[in-house]
Design brief:
mainly beta, Methylamine Dehydrogenase, Chain H, 2 domains, seven-stranded mixed beta sheet, four-stranded antiparallel beta sheet, 39 strands, elongated
Amino acid sequence: MAQFKRDLNIICLSPFTSGHISSQNKVPWWTQEGEVQMVQSKGSRGLRVAGAEATVLSFPASQIFSNCDYFPAEFSLVATMKIPRLRQKRNEYIFSVVEEGSDSLLLGLRARVTLGNPPPCSGPEQGQLWFNAQRKGLFICDGLTWTTLLHNPERLDYVEDYQDLYTSSETFDVEIFSVPSEGLFMAAANRDSRPGSGIYRWRNGSFQLYQNISTQEARAWKHFTIAGKIFLVVANSREAEPELSVIYRWNQRRQRFLRHQTLETHAALDWEAFQMHNHSFLVVANHRRDSNHNILSVIYRWNPDTQLFEVNQTVATSGAYDWEFFSVGPYHFLAVANTFDGQTTSISSTVYVWLDGCFQVFQSIPTVGATDWETFQIHGRVFLAVANSQKVSQRGPSLYSINSTVYELNTLTQTFIRFQDILTHSAVDWEFFTVGEEKFLVVANSHDGSSYSLNSVVYRWQGYEGFVAVHSLPTFGCRDWEHFSTDQGSFLVYSSATSRLSKVFKLRTY
């Protein structure tokens, strides 16, 4: 801008509640009653424009920058617009510089203001500003996506009931994922084999049935991508021996998931997919074989030549219920939730670390009927939350209202240490999510010993206080939580293992 000569017109949009252009250059005291005032603050003078009606204000730059031959390289523009009635998708110049004689635009600042979906962002829009009035954020288009310039962080206000989702049978798990160019999908792991499990697509602000897949008492789905190809693997927990779980692959031409590979499993309850050292892996939680819970779970590695998964390592587990993969710096970990060893649920679950080409024991952690591990980071701190479901032994009654625990990685001792105990009721899942800069955990409370109709609780991170309960959500036989976001906002969905009715909740923010 230092090359622009000062024989230019400066045009500003009015009304402003306040707005000024300031420079360190000495400027004359020049006013225009009712519209323009010169103001001085801390050694800088500027122009303030104001008006009762929307109008365009223009004036020669030479009247402002009188002691410089060129438009100054450094100046500031502060503007607060107050317009009583704003049409959606209005696109106005807030500030522009034009040649005085020809009115040819040399420099312009304008922002598109919307209350709905984001406007297009591609090559023609590069450099344009967009103000999201609903979320109070200012963004700039880089030619591909809208990049945040200024943003007022969202805060969670309340959670509202959004969609009743009726599935073909009880649902043990839901998996949210996206298919490029096709949108958002949800896979529901349903109990009944006919019609099986449902794949749902997010259309017009709700999940709608898209595809049925034959499954055998499906307990979990996992989505993953290898070399741009999209896969879904289901954990089937009841089928004539040998029990088979199935990997499905998205067929772009048919717009459906088609069977790709079958793997022998034993009452499988969970799959975890992860990538490590440019290799793709799958690990299955084998829960039991006949009545024996002390069996091997299997880690598979993708063979790019055969396009199939092959056994890479076996791990001894006791009623395995869940696997969780996570990385800390250069180290890779797998945590297994062991539920039952045939006699008691008061057993250890294990965290493994990748060393010398295989996963080795890193730490054993006492758990009580562990059904889920959830890992997350807050301000560089690494946490693991375990869902403890029930205390069962050969003596005495079962206890369902017990503590679940959040552990934190201590970098000095290189161990996970107890950070916080949270009372839960047969907890079977944790889900970590964020809203703006706030951090949350939601627990799936499934049973208290007498009823499946329980409140599941949302906890908010409060710093040194840990997680504090902020919302209670009515659930029935809650089995799994998933958080997802769309153009319509942020949502939570839970699956019910005792009813055909699962629910979607919307996170209302301010």
